Amino acid sequence: MCSTPVSALSDFTKYFFVECDASGMGIGVVLMQEGRPLAFKSQQLSGNNLRQSTYEKEMMAILYEVDTWRPYILGRRFQIHKDHQSLKYFLEQRLYSPQQNKWLAKMLGYDYEMIYKKGRENILVDALSREFEEESTLLEISLPIPEWIEEAHKEWFSHPWLSQLINQL
User: Fold this and answer.
1) Angle, to 10 degrees, between the axis of helix 98-107 and the axis of helix 54-68?
2) In CATH, what class is 16-144?
3) Is residue 45's pLDDT more than 80?
4) Fewer Cβ atoms within 10 Å of its own Cβ: the N or the C terminal residue of the chain?
5) Boundaries of every domain in the chain
6) Do residues 145 and 4 make contact, with C-beta atoms less than 8 angstroms apart?
7) Arithmetic mean of pLDDT over the chain
8) Is this structure's pTM higher than 0.70?
9) Quick one: which of 99, 61, 53, 104 has its CA closest to 80?
């Protein structure tokens, strides 16, 4: 996440997968393709959501990611990578609460496969979900810089008239 280029451009002819995680204070989601991140997003939990169980927070993370990346995943098969194993069997579980029925209704329109991913392998979304905790800090965000921009900078500053104009500005 700290080396360039960080994210890739999406290719709608290829398979998408999403990773998500929930911590005590936040949710982190990543849209990926061929092992490369396309987009990152995180959200701080507040109010009643802070008091939810781990299972419920992890399910909120799934719903948040599906809602966030809807234009990319609706109408195509995709994978959801989670570090919470019981959610892998969400569609096979008996539903006990109205909240679980709402979750199921929101997920019915999607063609997905839930994949369990061990917590220590889920580093990227884990960092995003924990950025809201007090002792945690997001240290770096980098953006890819095309080579032509670096070449243009070199050219501008090597040209006497342009470098003088840039310095004046």
Assistant:
1) 30
2) alpha beta
3) yes
4) C
5) 16-144
6) yes
7) 77
8) no
9) 61
